[in-house]
Amino acid sequence: MLLIRCPWCGPRDETEFRYGGEAHLARPADPQSLDDAAWAAHLFMRNNPKGWFRERWVHAAGCRRWFNAERHTVTHEIRRTYKPGEI
Amino acid sequence: MTAFRLPQGGTIDRSKPLNFTFDGKPLRGFEGDTLASALLANDVYLVGRSFKYHRPRGILSAGVEETNALVAVGEGGRLDTNSRATTLEIFDGLAARSLNHWPSLRFDVSAVNNLFCDLLVAGFYYKTFMRPRALWQSLYEPLIRRMAGIGEAPREPDPDRYDKRHRHCDVLVVGGGRSGRRAALEAAREGSRVVLCDEGRVEALPGVDVLPRTTVFGYYDDNFLCAVQREARLWHFRARHVVLATGAHERPLVFGENDKPGVMLAGAVETYLRRYAVAPGRRVVVFTNNDTGHKRAAAFRNFGLEVAAIVDSRQGDVVTRALGRRRVSGVEVNRNRRIDCDLVAMAGGWSPVVHLYSQAQGRLRWDENKLCFVPDGCRQDVRVVGRANGDFGDDYAIGPLWEVQADKAFVDFQSDVTARDVRLAAREGFASVEHFKRYTTTGMSPDQGKTSNVNALAILANATARSIGETGTTTFRAPYTPVRYGVLAGRDLGEFLDPVRITPMHDWHASRGAVFENVGQWKRPWYYGSDMHDAVQSEALAVRQSLGVLDASTLGRIDIQGRDAGEFLDRIYTGTFSSLGVGRSRYGLMCREDGMVFDDGVTTRLGERHFHMTTTTGGAARVLDWLEEWLQTEWPELEVYCTSVTEQWATVAIAGPKARALLAALAPGLPLDADAFPFLSMREAKVAGIEARVSRISFTGELSFEVNVPGRHGLALWEAVMDAGAKHGIRPYGTETMHLLRAEKGFIIVGQETDGTVTPYDLGLGRMVQAKKDFIGKRSLSRPEPRRAERKQLVGLLPEDPREVLPEGAQITEVDVPLPRRHGSRPVPMIGHVSSSYMSPNLGRSFALALVRRGRSSIGRDVFVPLEARAARARIVEPVFVDLEGARQRG
Question: Is the Cβ–Cβ distance between B390 and B367 less than 8 Å?
Fold first, then answer.
């Protein structure tokens, strides 16, 4: 079980968290201005790298806050977690 | 008699004799004995039958790697059919039974399989039982299952209580042998918090928390390890640093009939002599490919055993076959010489116990000198010491001997895999170690191949002309040893696993004969009375004709406050809420970003910056998570705070033509006429003397008020409503009646009329999709697809037979379908399904809601609902059956 460092609560067991998929995908400011293909790309297309990946997590059974993590998809190593808005 | 107890020695307590039985036969052992040592002390050599050929099998080892001596202990819910005799400590009254034989261990009729050994080769099941296919379910599978099982699962629940504990430590040492103890002491001296686990009884160490009889069975990410203590307690460890001192397992040697009782691992023989003072035989032949065998032979002599021969393959000698009928009576050496003995001790070299290391994603390397896999680097903070690291001492020399080619030379005893099976699999192309494993079932038995895997890999490597390192190992997976489900579950059973939520009025409902329905974790009254049909019919009539009352306390409630609350709700709901007047309510529909309906409910504006949202009973947590996700990750600039207040409120929904009269009696100061208190508005007032929020909301289509009071007053309010309603013939009604009444009005239930593929347009709720603002799902809904006429759309159905209640979930076809269907007949296109279906006392007939392709343009047409023996005919109608204009709820 991973040990995940919540930026607010510190290191906690993985079971306290829920996964939220790829991070840093901003919702388009004006979705209506996108054509169907661009909107579909925003909705459905995700990166799936072998290696370091920036992804969203929420401390669901804790402070209920969302944050981002850099995780290695092969080793599961999490080298960094950071608050939304940080880069 | 050949095996016997030595007159002295061992760590057993001879002052404490213990009585136990094996297959009903009374036997005696001592405190400190395992079942295996006690059986050997009683010269019981036959302990089970093998899995496939039902060959007689004896005790092979003295530890967790045991592959033959699995026994059943306990009765009923305490039945354990997978207990290893070599680790099971005996106690007074223990009743153990052997497995896998019928009718008795000595005379097993299935042992005829042994005669057909040549037929039951690797992949036999796949090759033989393929055709005819129809026979698979009816004949082959039950037959194979009966023949092949190892023991039988208990049929009753386990009555025992199991425990779970969590422990954080600086250093976790696995294994209490010499290396493990040294590592633990060193760490403790440096001031670390140290825990040491060992499978057996292990002495205390200063400054170390020693857990005896504790098997670490799983090694997961970030140094999280699980252990089971005395098969009763589950430990969860999170360690800064892990030391694996898990030792090594001795390998058997592969030669003819090497599975005969009396053929044992040499180290195990010494363990029985040393620890349990049991001699498993009198005259022993040692068969070895390394120096260990010679040391063992010397030890055996010290204990008084006669060593008939040491057969060392490095000198060109091999045991080609074990002789004897039910147990060993001698060996054949080099195919030409017979040596009499009653015990064969195999020393096939050592395999470090790298299971946990491999589970931790540690890499393994094949060591060409020591002929074993050794640890070779791991990302986790772990150190491997002692024999687990391949440290067998400087004088350890081994020569390869992986197989003495012979008939019935077993590699995996538990799965009955022979060396010939391994070569056959290689010839048939199963060269990849993972394919090979599955095809031959090598290493897939409860022992997980602890003694067999390396021999199998070596033979596979030879057969495919590769090195063992190139061939590689299969994945080591948790658990290292079998773990009971009871241990994993611990106390997380029943209510402790899934809490039960009840409303403040629960006991009242129960005492009035309510039958409860589970809605998420909630218990909701389903109907009141013994007969569901009668109860629902009279409850539903009462609501439409005079007065009914529903406990609606389970509705999800979210308090939403902040400067941008209105703007936020505009983005969340398809409709507009920022324009809602204070004290007014509006029905809202939430979609996901793909435009599909996600939840619905009524939201009320309590103040300029304050809203009260209701959600479906089952969706409350999901919706709150949804709101938080958008607020935190997409719109942090919005100042909005969401708080779950579901538990804070109790809600009594009063519905029916007499609702206003009832409320007037309970809330004398509250103006109730339609102008002063219109539909979809909220008033604060005292109801039955309790401060309340009263909402004019209707889920039944009747004149209806929902009275919300703080949860602790719920029962008082309910009882006051029941008292005041008595003269109107008030009826409490349950969720079934609620569903029926709302269906008569065509109101949807999220999750019943929707399934994640339904848009607002499909539900006929397109008017709720606001064109002027952006909201979640809007972009997807502005494509042509969600409005396409060919989609499944919500309609009503009236069965031709007014007494016929169509099953919910039934499929709908355009044409009549001849039933029953014959095998191979052409499929009939399905154009929809029944989503809700009831017998209505108000309509005097059955009706249903359904989602049907082109449903909106098919009003008035007939469709068919195929049932088991015939298809029911039904007419598509508008999905509103009562009060089409909605005058009653507004009245």
Answer: yes
Closest listed residue to residue B812, CA positions, set B842, B835, B790: B835
DSSP conformational letter for B445: S
- For residue A75, is it within any domain? yes
* ipTM for the assembly: 0.97
Q: Which of residues 377-416 of B touch A (CB under 8 A)?
A: 379
Alpha carbons within 13 A on the beta-carbon side of B480: 25
Q: Total domain count for chain A?
A: 1
Q: Which domain covers residue A15, as residue numbers?
A: 3-25+32-82
Would A58 be classed as within a structural domain?
yes
Q: Which chain B residues are within 8 Å of A3, Cβ to Cβ?
A: 221-224, 238
Q: For B446, what's the count of Cα atoms within 13 Å in the CB-facing half-sphere?
A: 20
- The residue count of chain A comes to 87
Residue B653: closest CA among B690, B704, B688: B704
Residue B150 pLDDT level (bands cut at 50, 70, 90)? low
Q: pLDDT band at B115, cuts 50/70/90?
A: low
pTM of the predicted protein model: 0.89
The answer to whether B435 faces chain A, any CB pair under 8 Å, is: no
Nearest CA in chain B to A24: B633
Q: pLDDT by residue (tens digit) across B711-770? A: 999 999 999 999 999 999 999 999 999 999 999 999 999 999 999 999 999 999 999 998
In a domain, A87, yes or no: no
Instruction: Report the pLDDT value the prediction gives residue B107, as an integer from 0 to 100.
Output: 64
How far is Cα B250 from Cα B252, in angstroms, rounded to an integer? 7
pLDDT at B522 over 90: yes
CATH number at residue A67: 3.30.2270.10
Residue B882: per-residue pLDDT? 95
Q: Domains in chain B and their CATH numbers? A: 4-115 (3.10.20.440), 162-248+350-396 (3.50.50.60), 249-349+397-471 (3.50.50.60)
Sort strands B13-22 and B25-31 into parallel, antiparallel or unpaired: antiparallel
In a domain, A59, yes or no: yes
**How far is CA B94 from each of CA B100, B437, B508, B573, rounded to the nearest angstrom?**
20, 36, 50, 66
